[in-house]
Amino acid sequence: MAEIKITFLGTGAGNCVYRNHTAIVLECSDGTRLLLDGSSGNSLLRQGAAVGFLPEDYDQILVTHDHADHIGGLPFLQGQRTLVSPDGPPLRVYSTEESLDAVRILCEATRMRSITVDKEGAKDHEGRPVFQWLPIIAGHAVELGPSTHATCFTVDHVDGAVGWRIECGGISVVFSGDTRFSENLVNASMGADLLIHEALTTGKDGDSAWNRLHSSSAEAARAAATAGVKQLVMTHIDSGLHDNTQPLIDDAGKYFNGTISVAHDLYQLSVSSS
Ligand SMILES: [Zn+2]
Ligand SMILES: [Zn+2]
Questions:
Q1: Residue 111 pLDDT class (50, 70, 90 cuts)
Q2: Which SS3 state, helix, strand or coil, does residue 71 take?
Q3: pLDDT (tens digit, 9 = 90+) per residue, 216-229?
Q4: Which positions ≥6 away from 37 have C-beta within 8 Å?
Q5: Ligand nearest to the CA of 213
Q6: pLDDT at 176 exceeding the cut of 90
Q7: pLDDT tens-place string over residues 36-50
Q8: Which of 19, 97, 163, 230 is the most buried (most CB within 10 A)?
């Protein structure tokens, strides 16, 4: 039986004051563990520690885009990884060239544990590799484990922004990253077991979400319905909806008949083939 276990370390929008920023852990039944986005500050480390994930447990991360609430935790992850496991493998960072450029600049500027950054990766002060940059092209699959692979697709947010479809043994999980309603996302999500989609507002405030380059719950649900996914989980929640996310679920329910939930920090679920 194939299975993917999903743990949401952070589920807040960029300016949400009640939740940690975006980072999601996927544990696939072939033993592959993935990070989707790197949150900000030490949230990724702190939230991970709360559910038993240590910095050295992460060897690869798929990045959606270069906003600080999605990549800001990478220097801290690398710093702690290198401190605890100096001879461990470099952290493999998969994203578009645009997003990798921002990650390089961030890591160079913050210089956690005195790393030096170049086009291929980064090394610590003793020359050991700590990062490996892996540029990806939309539509090209990358192999991440014995039976796990991922494909990214361009979304409508900022230059270089992508979402990801991850598949393990026939199980498929799609993550929107940040985006306005995206036809590319719908096409990439066809028949997926789970769609994790951002939802900044309900449909009645959809113009506000659009103006901020984001989606409403109505748009997340329309994407889920059109793609025929089995389950929708909404994330990237703004402050005003933190306490009561029921309006997001009610709104999405007008458009999508499948299972709907809203993630919260440390929310966990599994999808499996039986
Ligand atoms: Zn964001
Ligand atoms: Zn963003």
A1: confident
A2: helix
A3: 999 999 999 999 99
A4: 22, 23, 24, 61, 62, 63, 64, 70, 71, 177
A5: 2
A6: yes
A7: 999 999 999 999 999
A8: 163
The bound ligand whose nearest atom lies closest to the alpha carbon of 70 is 1
Question: Helices (DSSP H) in 166-266: which residue ranges?
Answer: 183-188, 206-211, 217-227, 246-253
Q: Write out the residues surrounding ion ligand 1, Cβ under 5 A.
A: 14, 69, 178
Domains defined along the chain, listed by start: 3-272 (3.60.15.10)
Report the C-alpha gap between 223 and 156 in whole angstroms.
Answer: 14
Tell whether the model's pLDDT for residue 131 goes beyond 70: yes
Q: Which ligand is nearest to the CA of 198?
A: 1
Roughly what angle, to the nearest 10 degrees, separates helices 217-227 and 246-253? Answer: 40
Interatomic CA distance for residues 263 and 23, integer angstroms = 12
Contact of 245 with 197, CB cutoff 8 Å: no
Q: How far is the CA of 40 from the centre of ligand 1 (A)?
A: 10
Q: Quick one: which ligand is closest to 65's CA?
A: 2
- Rounded to the nearest angstrom, the distance between the alpha carbon of 214 and the centre of ligand 1 is 9
Please give the distance, rounded to the nearest whole angstrom, from the Cα atom of residue 161 to the centre of ligand 2.
8
- Block residue for tokens 């952070």: 10
d(CA 109, CA 193): 40
CA dist 60 and 92 (Å) reads 5
Structure tokens at 2: 């194939």
- Say how far apart CA 51 and CA 27 lie, in whole Å: 13
CA dihedral in degrees (250, 17, 153, 179; nearest 10)?
60
Tell me if 261 sits within 8 A of 38, measured CB to CB: no
